[in-house]
Design a protein that fits this description.
The complex is a heterotetramer, with two copies of chain A (128 residues) and two copies of chain B (408 residues). Chain A is α+β, with helices and mostly antiparallel strands and 128 residues long. Chain A is built from six helices and three strands. Chain A starts with a helix and ends with a helix. Chain B has 408 residues and is α/β, with parallel strands linked by helices. Chain B folds into two domains: 151 residues, Aspartate Aminotransferase, domain 1 (Alpha-Beta Complex), CATH 3.90.1150.10; 244 residues, 3-Layer(aba) Sandwich (Aspartate Aminotransferase, domain 2), CATH 3.40.640. Chain B has a seven-stranded mixed beta sheet with strand order 2-8-7-6-5-3-4, sandwiched between helices. Chain B has a three-stranded antiparallel beta sheet with strand order 9-10-12. The chains are: A alpha+beta (128), B alpha/beta (408). Chains in contact: A-B, A-C, B-C, B-D, C-D. At the B-D interface, helix 3 of B face helix 1 of D. The structure holds pyridoxal-5'-phosphate (PLP) (2 copies). One pyridoxal-5'-phosphate (PLP) binds next to helix 4 of chain B.
């Protein structure tokens, strides 16, 4: 991607986005996790790992690790916020769109980050 | 975004215009606004100003005024130099030598020539980011027309052995060889280290105004007397037939004023930049682990530091710093791909992770000690925060633990 | 030199920058100085400003912002348009149509293409200085790639039948023809008469900032979506891959601000210019004999007057006026040969004497009625003085006497 | 000649030059001339005509007509000043250099104007 496009993209990052980047929620490993998912974006090498602690069909705790461009980090952070306290069933219904809405949108060239996050969520849930 | 404090550490991308330079340029917008090709008073006034500026730019690099061609920037200077010389020679020879760490403009121009049938040799820069003159010798062919090796790299600041390469070219000429020219892109070096075209021994040298506290939109090419090149922007007699188009008088005047200041204040500025840069690097070494400094630290421009932060990725670090008011860059600000790792850092033999995690900090004359302190306060926190997110971090730790266990 | 009074009547060569334009540009030197390709705050600020300017320039000609490519001036715009389109097509076709009254930049570019094997048809402009669309039709060949006809001439101001030519091109396309493009050089017309790329029907259109009260060193090319051209300045991704090199942000911002003012104030400005121009021409007719007005007076830019003064020569008149503080031009300020008679005036069928004696007076928004009065006072005296020196004068008189005798 | 060169040239015109251009001396025909010379520069078409009134080997009066670029006009004017009142013999010895000195020099590309003036002078003297 040309740098000028990066600039254009950076121009469109929302306040919510910047807040999550500056203060990621639920970062790190989860010691007592009973579900883990990890996915890698083959295009840019970005990687997201999600730890869940699921009790009685409810996500009691969620944490994440991420490597890659800011949208990937931010999607990890927002995702954990969105699923914490929800039932696994609810979490399964979560879509890319929900994630995008929560972080105030992403430029089209960065939307794959949201897709990666949803895939990782699905993988984690599948591992329960 | 932290609006209270802004620290600009991206002077290799562009510099703020010096207020003295703005002042010098200002009359040329509204009062002395003539077209330098006009015969009347207004034109003469503009022409005289352009010629004064030409002498100043020439003086910065030890050239003669009539060897300076004014252009729109460093990219155009590289285009005119490389394409101009190659087109002039394309009847007989079609080989050119360049390096793997050139600016994206030189890279792009050479790629284009490659597509139209030129053979391009790209010399390695090794782990230190420095080209070896001996490699130039080995690469020379009977049909080599041009050697284009930059004076100082824009991402890591390493200074290339231009004088040694020029000595080779002189040797070849002494053996009766003609039509072998030597171009160097001095866009990053000019104003930061002393340059003299006769000491350097190059035939063509590119400059860009906006890297030395003049405005964007002006540049120059030094063309040594006797070098034949084909004009790229055609259809006018300006700049001694080498570059058509109405001269951008205010930008040229500003370039001249900035060149004069750069010459007069170079020692002072580079000492200042280097003091801040060295203080910064010492602080980073002290406070942040797992960093790799890119480029030969003993043979660098004084204002620039390029550091790979392991386990994390450049864009995230850059934007996180930006949110704290700190402006830096990843790769070259004018570089092309960027989610691809920087080709320059890759050329040093670094792996993808280190290349993606490379950040350039470039200091300038208006930076202060406080700026450095602020960055040294913010940067470790930001790096730590991002590393806390990174799975690579854990894996490395895990591997080390395993290694540690294995050693017992 | 009379220092007390200066009257600038060379607005077709270049214009003073509007103080409002300077004000708009000023922050982009020292405060908002970022490189528009930088990712951080400073870069975003610059990028946003460039894009605002792009919308303003687009609005001036009814284009979309993403059809505007920023460049260093009108000459570069013509280079990118003509060479860019021709190089893109050179695999299959090598014929282009232009006129005998193009600006020296277009003339020079076409000459260059001619040397590298292109067939060039140069259409006549007749005594009125206006190209005929029917001649374009007659010149069209199966391998015609490009038609380049200027919108308004820079020496005599005549407006060309762009819409009619565009209609021809549309006809050809309707017959299934592809790869026929239409470029117009609107450098003189922009800001002086209303322009809309869809009404005009052109595919490419050149603009230069310094002709509309913005600084020298900025220009733009309108490239209609779908037109393929080969970038001329290469090695960077700026301007959607069409023009490499760090954008000249202050110049671009100024260009945008000037385009906005030009759009808002066009009617007013052109009325003002025309009033002065017409007053001037009436005065000349009244006070000076043996003058010839060049170019169709009914189909001209409102600000420009081109007059041949018989028996005397342009350079002497120009310098004599300059000594009285009056700035005018002979031929195009950017034209090449000039001791040779102006090729444009020659193209009208004028003899060498008339062509050498042609002077362009071009008015601008800061000229006043007093300026015109002053010129109308000085010009007849100067012309008279020079004519008193001229042997041609006597010969003509002698001839007339003889003719008069012969008639009796 | 490119226009920018013209500008360079205009830059170097001396005050004397400008004065002669603004106020040409001895312009016009000379009714009682007994010698006339006319030369044309084949390169640029510039033309100079010189009228002399010679009495007893002395140039009593001189006038000129000129068409062409400013140096040609100015050389005509200066030439008449230089020769008026001189003996024909003195006038014959006048060189291009004398003329150039009198008008404060000319850029090399315009020096042919001085040559034209001297040629015209010689032609006029020859016609006595
Ligand atoms: C080494 C080098 N060469 C060339 C350029 C291009 O110059 P400009 O930005 O004036 O087009 C740059 C700046 O980006 C550079 O750093
Ligand atoms: C009709 C026309 N085209 C092109 C140009 C060249 O533009 P610039 O002076 O910006 O190079 C000019 C100005 O001289 C012009 O009048």
């Amino acid at each position: 991607m040309p740098l000028w496009l990066l600039t254009l993209i950076a121009l469109t990052y929302s306040e919510a986005f910047k807040d999550h980047l500056a203060n990621p929620r639920n970062a790190g490993e989860l010691a007592n996790a009973n579900a883990v998912g990890e996915e890698t974006n083959p295009v840019c090498g970005d990687r997201l790992r999600l730890y869940l602690q699921v009790k009685a069909g409810r996500i009691e705790a969620a944490r994440f690790l991420a490597y890659g461009c800011p949208p990937t980090l931010v999607c990890g952070s927002i995702l954990t916020e969105l699923i914490k306290g929800r039932s696994v069933e609810e979490a399964t219904r979560l879509t890319r769109k929900d994630l995008l809405a929560a972080l105030g949108g992403l430029p089209s060239r960065k939307q794959h980050a949201a897709a990666l996050a949803i895939e990782t969520l699905r993988a984690a849930i599948a591992s329960v | 975004m932290n609006d209270s404090r802004k620290v600009y550490l991206d002077h290799s991308a562009t510099t703020p215009v010096d207020p003295r330079v703005v002042a010098a340029m200002l009359p040329y917008f509204t009062q002395k606004f003539g077209n330098a090709s006009s015969v009347h008073f207004f034109g003469q006034e503009a022409r005289a100003a352009v010629d004064r500026a030409r002498r100043e730019v020439a003086a910065l690099i030890g050239a003669r005024a009539n060897e300076i061609v004014f252009l729109s920037g460093g990219t155009e200077a590289n285009n005119l130099a490389i394409r101009g010389v190659c087109e002039a020679a394309s009847g007989h020879s079609r080989h050119l030598i360049t390096s793997t760490i050139e600016h994206s403009s030189v890279r792009g121009i050479c790629e284009g020539l490659g597509k139209s049938g030129w053979e391009i040799t790209r010399l390695p820069a090794y782990e230190e980011g420095v080209v070896q003159a001996e490699d130039v010798r080995a690469a020379l062919r009977p049909n080599t027309v041009l050697i284009s090796v930059m004076l100082a790299n824009n991402e890591i600041g390493t200074i290339q052995p231009i004088e040694e390469i020029a000595a080779l070219v002189r040797e070849e000429r002494a053996r009766g060889r003609r039509q072998l020219w030597f171009h160097t892109d001095a866009v990053q070096a000019a104003g930061r280290i002393p340059l003299h075209v006769d000491t350097l021994g190059c035939d063509l040298l590119s400059l860009s105004a906006h890297k030395l506290y003049a405005p964007k939109g002006a540049g120059a090419l030094f063309v040594r007397r006797g070098v034949r090149l084909v004009s790229q922007n055609v259809g006018g007699h300006q700049e001694r037939e080498k570059r058509a188009g109405t001269e951008g008088v205010p930008g040229i005047v500003a370039f001249g004023a900035a060149a004069k200041l750069a010459r007069e204040e170079m020692a002072e500025r580079s000492q200042h930049d280097q003091r801040l840069r060295d203080r910064f690097e010492a602080g980073v070494t002290e406070r942040i682990g797992n960093v790799v400094f890119n480029g030969d630290r003993g043979r660098r421009l004084p204002h620039l530091s390029n550091i790979s932060f392991r386990f994390i990725e450049g864009e995230g670090l850059l934007i996180s710093l930006d949110l704290q008011g700190i402006a830096v860059s990843t790769g070259s600000a004018c570089s092309s791909g960027t989610l691809e790792p920087s080709p320059v850092i890759r050329a040093l033999g670094r792996n993808d992770e280190l290349a993606r995690g490379a950040i350039r900090f470039s200091f300038g004359k208006d930076n202060t000690e406080q700026d450095v302190e602020y960055v040294l306060e913010v940067l470790p926190r930001v790096v730590e925060k991002l590393r806390a997110l990174s799975p690579l971090n854990r894996e490395e730790m895990g591997r080390r633990d395993l290694e540690a266990i294995g050693q017992n």
